[in-house]
Amino acid sequence: SEDVNKTKTEYLKSFQYESGLLLSTWIVIRIDGCHFHRFSEAHKFEKPNDEAALNLMNSCAVGVLEEFNDIVFSYGVSDEYSFVLKKESQLYGRRASDIVSAVVSYFSSMYTMKWKDFFPHREIIYPAYFDGRAVCYPSSHILRDYLAWRQVDCHINNQYNTCFWMLVKSGKTKSAAQTYLKGTQVQEKNELLAQLSGTTDYYNKLPPMFCLGSSVYRSKKEKNTVDEKEEGGIVDKLCEKVVIEYCNIIEPSFWEAHPEILD
Ligand code: ATP
Ligand code: ATP
Ligand code: MG
Ligand code: MG
Asked: Helices then strands (H, E): number in the chain?
């Protein structure tokens, strides 16, 4: 009967066939908060950008990079994060559902666990949850296009939201603010911000985290450490640290300064 059981197990397993994501491609796992419009209102996020909420997202991303060694870079904005796995990754045999579900659930658990560190005086009133998808990008060139797309999106949304909330805070209703902004170009939005705030470069003075989003990656730096085995001798060690930066990832200079990320 052990043989019968084994055959039955194999028969049932044959239904869950899933091939891995294409070999030698960058795997991007993008997660996004579910119904965060509502979640952010229920939890009284500051509009348009709640700094503590963004820092919480970033802290969860750091946790994800510390847990999953194959993730080489990640970029986050608003309620979303994109995690880039190295081309050669064999995590879960490259099966999309295994990778996505593990990353998404790890991130969601961290979000609830770390909530009190970022909102010490505000209870989390219901669970935050995220969806996720996996996409393969066949070259680092295309991967950089993907990341640039997310950063452009961050900029466009942030500029719109900054204008929108400034109009609302100046007394307009939400629908009036929406109508007012419909079809406005970048230049008109800049002028509007200058006019409403009374400063010429209001947008450029916003915290870089709001305008550029957050990049989380492993920084390899040589660091002098005291090696105990060498009786107090100073040795150079390559130390890896997960860092958060708010930088332009559209321009080549970032990637030229960090060639190890996409090598
Ligand atoms: P879906 O479930 O389809 O993703 P959603 O309500 O999460 O719907 P998104 O397009 O993902 O919609 O937008 C996320 C929303 O969450 C933003 O529009 C914004 O209102 C809110 N939000 C997320 N992060 C912040 C933050 N740090 N500060 C203020 N609001 C935020
Ligand atoms: P993987 O990451 O591959 O899933 P795993 O360690 O989670 O590895 P599983 O095959 O999923 O392995 O098995 C789950 C294991 O978790 C069980 O073997 C058992 O040791 C433990 N476990 C789960 N639930 C309980 C429980 N209620 N009481 C005691 N042990 C449990
Ligand atoms: Mg969302
Ligand atoms: Mg979103």
From this structure: 9, 6
Question: Does 3.30.70.3000 match the CATH number of domain 19-153?
Answer: yes
Give the number of the atom of ligand 1 that is nearest the alpha carbon of residue 53: 27
Q: What are 64-103's pLDDT values in tens digits? A: 999 999 999 999 999 999 999 999 999 999 999 999 999 9
More confident residue, 32 or 225: 32
**259 CA → ligand 3 middle, Å:** 32
Identity of the amino acid at 235: V
What are 115-169's pLDDT values in tens digits? Answer: 999 999 999 999 999 999 999 999 999 999 999 999 999 999 999 999 999 999 9
Coil vs helix vs strand at 77: strand
DSSP-derived 3-state class of residue 44:
coil
Find the DSSP H helices in 31-185. Answer: 36-42, 51-67, 96-118, 140-169, 174-181
Q: 215: which 2 tokens?
A: 């990049």
For a mutational test of ligand 1's pocket, the pick from 41, 56, 79, 174, i.e. the residue with the most ligand atoms closer than 8 A to its C-beta, is 79
Backbone angles phi and psi of 35, in degrees to 5: 55, 45
Distances (CA, A) of 149 to 89, 142, 146, 194, 220: 24, 10, 5, 27, 26
Q: Domain boundaries in the chain?
A: 19-153
Listed residue (151, 140, 147, 93) closest to 260, CA to CA: 140
